[in-house]
Amino acid sequence: MTTIYSIYDQLAEIIAHAEPEKVLKMRASEDVQQRFNVLLEKSKNEEISRQERDELNHFVMVERLLRLAKVRAECNLA
User: How far apart are alpha carbons 35 and 78 in whole angstroms?
Assistant: First the structure.
């Protein structure tokens, strides 16, 4: 059975093989980072709406995916 985690692993592998050097340089834009920080702070203070929580969860999922891709990209360069 395929789990969401195995799908993340597969996507990370595809991203990592694309161009490992570029994957390692990937960073969120300033605007995206600011939005993430706002949502994170709202979450900590329990002042977050359901829609904002969903948005924050998507940020977290994408971050995890990119971290996996970066680890694999490093391995591909080694």
Answer: 34
Q: Which two tokens stand for residue 65?
A: 């995916």
Is it the case that residue 31 has pLDDT exceeding 60?
A: yes
| Whether the predicted pLDDT of 3 surpasses 80 | no
pLDDT computed for residue 50 by the predictor: 96
Phi, psi of 16 (to 5 degrees): -60, -35
47-59 mean pLDDT = 94
- In sign, the C-alpha dihedral spanning 10, 12, 13, 14 is positive
Does residue 59 sit in helix, strand or coil?
Answer: helix
Question: Residue ranges of the alpha helices (H) in 19-47?
Answer: 20-25, 30-44
- C-alpha 22 chain-centroid distance: 15
- Reported residue count of the chain is 78
